[in-house]
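User: Is it possible to get a 3D structure for a protein together with its bound compound? The compound here is iron/sulfur cluster. I've pasted both below.
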Amino acid sequence: MNALVSVKYGYEPWQMAYDALKRVFVDDVKGKRILLKPNAGRKGKVRTAICTNPEVIRGVIRFLKEKEAGEILVGDGALWGVNVWEAMETAGISAVCQEEQVKPVNLDEAPPVVKQIAGGVMVEQLKFSSLAFEADMVISIPVIKTHMYTGATLSIKNMKGCLYKMEKTKLHRINKPCPDKNKGRCLDYGIADMATVLLPDYVVADGTVCMEGFGPSVGDPVNLDLVVAGKDPTATDYVCIQLMGMKHDAVPHVTLVQERMGTAGIHDIEVDPPDFIKYAKTFATADMTRLKNSYPNISVIEKGACSACSATIMAFIKTHGHKFDQEYHFTLATGKDLSEDDLARENLVLVGNCAGDCVKGSGSGFCKGCPPIGSGILAYMNRESEDDYEKAIR
Ligand code: SF4
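Assistant: Yes, that's possible. Here is the predicted structure of the complex:
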């Protein structure tokens, strides 16, 4: 039987989420404990596409309550330097939890649980928040976004927020040869490893306000005004990818997961409505070359860095590059393998703890974090003293 994916377009977000989920839902959840996993690991206001639209979450909660679900938890874990409680407050998610009387959670406040990855290609084990495994059901509620490293971030990649604290960066720090570069990068294979132990039971993808370009954090909003729901994660992600104007196989980790897990392929999907593609828009992808060309005064050295620090640097240049005088030339350097020549550069800004390790014991400063966030680099560069900087990032 084909995997059913429902696309609802053009009306109240909570009602679209409710209707889309209702169309595909087949389980009895009476009395069950359910974790709703939105995008809430970064701080961003409502309808900026940083975090999931709280009204979409509201629709899911209302549907589950009607099905007499037991405890409903709503939460995420965050990257270094982000407070999930603040992120959920800013995004309006805490308010919806309060109004609908469900429990907001910070996944990183629950104890960790280690899962072995049988036949892991990139990792042998991963540490998760235990909440993801204590729930009877997990529903992934991502914003539909392009992603500067993985092409797009949707329901499968959204589960990375369930990794415990700094374990979230582990898949970005893989130091192994890539099995087949034509099929994906190390990060894509790592996400596929993760999917062998944690895939969502349902997906409700928020396509009300999406993100194009430099997602997941510094892209531009795109109104699609729709919600997509499905039980099969690859089926749902494939539909979202097509709604972003891409070929279904443009996002390597989704295809790797599909092949490995035997979930729905592109020919195993039934979409309601069948002509859903009429709602698609062509999303801009992250054009790194154009970004670097726009700021010739900013040089970047990456040696032995993982994609998390690289992404932070791109996000920093995109958001803050224009704040610097074009006559001021400086170098952002990241990674654990910086050479003495690299470290001797003028106006050098070391980004991330690995880069900091390269100057350990020398008394030189660096922008802290694993990875840092873009505003952390700005705070570091604008600091008048180390104390100022410490206060700014606290
Ligand atoms: S500091 Fe940066 S390069 Fe080093 S492990 Fe952390 S994220 Fe990766």
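The first strand starts at residue 3 and ends at 9. DSSP finds 15 helices and 15 strands in the chain.
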